[in-house]
Design goal:
alpha+beta, 10 helices, 28 strands
């Protein structure tokens, strides 16, 4: 208290309010200690903790109700672009679209960190063309082409040739060949008596074939010829004579495509005399021999040769039953999947080689070969998880990488490009395309005890949501971006996209780069030492004096200093030796 005794009553010395007034207040322990040491007590409103929590929740409910009311008013104002422009004229059209666009549930993305992509798909995927159709198409495949090799320097030869054609077909037998830019290269009829059920093309560019199969088990093969389009003499003459109306020859398709029917085949009848239903097809080259494989609903794989002869029939079900679900041919290897069993088709011994991976204990829902590494297999289980194996000698299985459950979901269809696995997740109302990072496989870093490489912390590189898809195809290209094609579920639209992704390859380090300079320095010292010792020995011989010394110096590598007397003496010696040689010749003649 102040020295003059002024101040509040409870602060004055000897005041009876110090203990009596505070004794009736029920304070928390820390406030009681503060008061006991001379602090000021709390004089505001008080309530128990439960009442305070109830009041806080009521305030949150009141604020949430106000926010819900405002959001409902905003949603009504954005019901249509016209209403949005009238109610909120200052709001940009892009903001209106962002508010009205359907997006994935943020709660799902926040609760599933493994499914969250690490980058935007727009950084890697570029839409090249969207092709609408008036009629419904059912099948879609990329047909790889060889890179053109020409020595011509004409303008027509400078037009780039496509390295793939997109083959799409309808059930009624109509087949279209499209360039990656969306131009129609050729349309032809496969001429089937029944609806087409399957379409197959080779995975290599050795020969261009298109195989179609109908519901009756009839397979028809057409050979496609592709060459660069060149103007005929009549077209060139007409072009030169027309000086007013000219169209650039670079417009339209740059290739001339023709097709020729090659062979028709028939799937053999079953034991009961019925024709089995073909479930999958594949075209493969093995040691410069073409084979066509057809899997059916009875579990049989029929192997046809190029001329249509049935080479053999392989049974994948071993009498258990069940059809062949898929056949895939990559780099001369053929993989089959029948139910939960999968393996390779050996076209040299014409037998099946089932694969059993001890590390995999799930149910195989899909299995495909890696298009970049023929010995690598990608498997999907019933949970949609992706397993990557390396199969050596088509029997020894080793786990390379396993993505955790929840990263992807079933139904999931897989494909691959260099360093990444592409997946198509299908749904009832939408689908999504994603890329999984597998670039660490084979680099020997971070391997577990089992030898596998753990996936990165953010395994999905990008994800692109799109509408439902009926079919899709991926074409890997070496010097350009990879191609992706999607056929919409209604079959009336095809979108061709280019994928711009590459794996960083560090430069190859020279193992002897650190030793180059020391080795060069040692070599220079040795050469200089050798020259020094050589010159030192020559000087020792010259020290003997006279012609012998000079000759010795010359023989040791020293220079001869020919003076006038030395040169004259050399000439005399030469003449003398020549005369003796003549005498020796005469003596030989006399003898």
């Amino acid at each position: 208290p102040p020295a003059d005794g002024s101040g509040p009553p409870h602060c004055q010395e000897g005041s009876d309010t110090d203990d009596d007034a505070l004794a009736d207040i029920d304070l928390p322990p820390h406030m009681a200690r503060s008061v006991a040491t001379g602090g000021t007590p709390y004089g505001g409103p008080k309530a128990d903790l439960i009442s305070q929590e109830i009041k806080e929740l009521e305030d949150v409910i009141r604020l949430s109700s106000e926010r819900i009311k405002l959001l409902k008013e905003l949603s009504a104002a954005l019901a249509s672009p016209e209403q949005a422009a009238a109610a909120l004229p200052q709001l940009p059209a892009t903001a209106v679209r962002a508010l009205r666009e359907d997006l994935p549930l943020l709660s799902d993305l926040a609760g599933q960190p493994l499914r969250t992509p690490g980058a935007a798909s727009e950084d890697f995927l570029v839409s090249k063309v969207v092709i609408p159709f008036d009629e419904e198409f059912d099948f879609l495949k990329f047909l790889p082409l060889r890179s053109p090799r020409t020595q011509s320097s004409t303008a027509a030869a400078q037009v780039p040739m496509p390295n793939a054609l997109l083959v799409t077909a309808r059930k009624d037998g109509e087949v279209l060949l499209l360039t990656p830019s969306g131009d129609l290269a050729l349309a032809f009829e496969a001429v089937h008596d029944q609806p087409i059920t399957h379409l197959a093309v080779p995975s290599s560019h050795e020969e261009y074939l298109v195989a179609t199969c109908d519901a009756g088990g009839t397979i028809r093969v057409h050979k496609v010829s592709v060459r660069q389009r060149r103007m005929e003499k009549k077209e060139k003459a007409a072009r030169k004579s027309n000086a007013t109306d000219k169209i650039s020859q670079h417009l339209g398709s740059s290739v001339n495509v023709t097709v020729q029917f090659q062979k028709q085949m028939q799937v053999p009848e079953a034991e009961d005399g019925s024709t089995p239903t073909v479930t999958t097809m594949a075209v493969v080259s093995q040691a410069s021999t073409k084979f066509l494989l057809a899997g059916d609903s009875t579990g049989k794989i029929t192997v046809f040769t190029r001329n249509g002869t049935v080479k053999t029939v392989l049974d994948t079900s071993e009498g258990i039953g069940g059809g062949v679900d898929s056949l895939q041919a990559v780099h001369g290897s053929v993989m089959y999947r029948s139910g939960q069993d999968w393996g390779y088709v050996d076209l040299e011994k014409f037998e099946l080689r089932p694969v059993d991976c001890p590390m995999f204990n799930g149910r195989v829902m899909d299995a495909v070969l890696d298009t970049t590494v023929a010995s690598r297999v990608m498997v999907t289980d019933e949970d949609g998880s992706v397993w990557i194996f390396t199969v050596k000698n088509k029997k020894d299985c080793k786990l390379d990488m396993h993505f955790e459950n929840g990263t992807t979901s079933w139904p999931l269809h897989l494909s691959s490009v260099r360093g990444f696995v592409l997946g198509l997740e299908e749904g009832e109302q939408a689908s999504s395309v994603l890329a999984l990072n597998t670039s660490m496989i084979g680099k020997g870093k971070g391997k577990s005890e089992a030898g596998s490489v753990p996936p990165p912390s953010q395994p999905i590189v990008w994800r692109r949501n799109r509408g439902p898809v009926r079919s899709w195809s991926v074409q890997r290209r070496s010097k350009e971006g990879d191609l992706l094609a999607f056929l919409s579920r209604d079959g009336r639209e095809i979108e061709i996209m280019e994928l711009l992704m590459s794996v960083y390859t560090p430069p190859v380090a020279d193992q002897f780069s650190n030793f180059k300079m020391p080795v060069i320095a040692v070599a220079v010292v040795l050469v200089m030492g050798y020259q020094y010792m050589k010159n030192k020995g020559g000087k020792g011989l010259l020290g003997g004096g006279g012609a012998g010394g000079r000759a010795g110096g010359a023989g040791a590598g020293g220079k001869l200093d020919f003076g006038d007397s030395d040169f004259a003496a050399a000439l005399r010696n030469k003449k003398r030796l020549g005369g003796l040689g003549g005498l020796k010749g005469k003596a030989g003649a006399l003898g």
